[in-house]
Amino acid sequence: QVQLVESGGGLVQAGGSLRISCAASGRTFSSYAMGWFRQAPGKERELVAAISKNGGTTYYTDSVKGRFTISRDNAKNTVYLQMNSLKPENTAVYYCAAGETGARLRLGVTLYWGQGTQVTVSS
Question: Is the pLDDT of residue 103 over 90?
Fold first, then answer.
């Protein structure tokens, strides 16, 4: 069992930056691909970014490429999402998730979820 706890969300002005984190319990963090999903009001949950078990491969949805960066520190059991040049449409609850592979995360197949952290971007 893996528990995921997100932190770092908050209110930021458009054009600003925010880094959110997800700390995982357990000793097997490096056994999982990790992803950040988001869900805006009235919209379906979508995968924003994913990273492979060793951090060597990353994936981004088109709308955040060049602005968001996913990274992980396996020694700290933590995955991060650095968000730059934020836009009001990035407002959502951001969830981290663990999966068997990045490919399965892209299919929406996840093993564990965090509770989410709210990111609000004001115009």
Answer: yes
